[in-house]
Please model this.
Amino acid sequence: MAKRKSKIAANEPGQKTIKKILIANRGEIAVRVIRACRDLGINSVAVYSEADRTGLHVRYADEAVFIGPPSPRESYLVAEKIIEAAKKTGADAIHPGYGFLSERSFFSQMCADEGIIFIGPPPGAIDTMGDKQTARETVRKAGVPVVPGTTPGMRDEEILALAPGFGFPLLVKATAGGGGKGMRAVHREEDLKDAIAGARREAESAFGNGDVYVEKMLVGARHIEFQVLADTHGNTIHLGERECSIQRRHQKLVEESPSIVLDQDPSLRQRMGEMAVKAAESVGYVNAGTIECLVDKDKNFYFLEMNTRLQVEHPVTELVTGIDLVKEQIRIARGRRMGPTQSFLNPTGWAIECRVNAEDPYNNFMPSVGKITSLNVPTGPGVRVDSGVYGGYEITPYYDSMIAKLICWGEDRGEAILRMRRALEEYTIMGVKHNIPFHQNLMNSFSFIAGMFDTKFVEERFSMTTYEEAPSEDELETAAIAATLFAHRQRQLASQVVTRGERDTSNWKWVGRWERMHR
Model:
């Protein structure tokens, strides 16, 4: 295949050349990065395992390299194979996507040692922020508030003696990794010892690191994160927040931007944004990253952790800011100044993302595998689908269950929800079970529509068979006010009425009649 001519201008002093990028990932994020490469006129290289031989990212890339068996431990997690594929194809840079090797500092260092540009943060920042306890201590020294908890490297006996002083419930967490692995909620002191032991075993199995710590669990808290960008020219900004409180077992299911809480309190948004920038600057961060926080009922916020990579939910930020985050990542990796230089405090419109997963919401979200026999993807105004599948694609048990991300934008939250309802109704997937019914039920939930939810909403107050408990009088009043304001807005938008034309037929038929009459 002939190479496309790069659209990137000649380098200025201190900038780097990127003509070909290898994407060290698979599925929808690999497709997403390939599309950004095409927009920039940069050639792309895909890597694939035996299970992904017919993957969409393999079809879309300019080149593709086979890297081994289906198991990630034998393919996508083998750094040496990724580096060898980059050298073999002459790739100047590697984009890690998210998951797999994206937050492994040794991989970032290997790229530097081989003269390959790593499109992400430097190894030191990954090391510091990748370890949750080290990250907590680092940002604490910078004046960033953190959730009360134990310090790194404590033995079980020390944790058992100190942790009850924070008050129950508590959360036992692995210091490495993420995705809800190595985490245990503890509501009674007598359960703490077993929870620590279980979390250590799971963390050791998942991450090769059994270290854990304990922190206070904030009841009724919301999970709100800030997207940050930093370049090598001393610019560090945030691009606003994302609301990620709709979770199950610490796994996000729905994200939106902005957050309804911060949208009602701009001063809180400003303070949290300043905190996010300060946390990133405390480790000399470069490229795209996310500062995750918990916000309690009294609107006190606490640093939770930093993800040193692109997030799954990045599209909602792109839709309300108009910034292509993958392109900015590449721009920063080349040594250029990033496009935006001021933090975003006024998002445009509202965006909601639903993660469409191959799992059965009627059977405890049991994963589903098999061939997608029929696929109908929604389109239309304000609708975006990021996906790596197609009709006939095989969902395998080797990787995560995400099929696609459905993102809808509206001028306000009400319109975004209505568009999401319409898009979910149009979305048809046959051959495997999926969680679209869950999202449809959620979009009709009174509490979700009214913005009254927290991180435990799905697990404790949501059901696939009944929407939820009857609302209180205060909740009904809030919903009535919200509905009234939304109806008023819709009437304003519909104030221009177009009447029916005087003729009862089309112009073509009218002309035909006129011609017959004047023959």
About this structure: The chain has three domains: 20-119, 148-216, 222-461. The chain is about 35% helix and 20% strand.
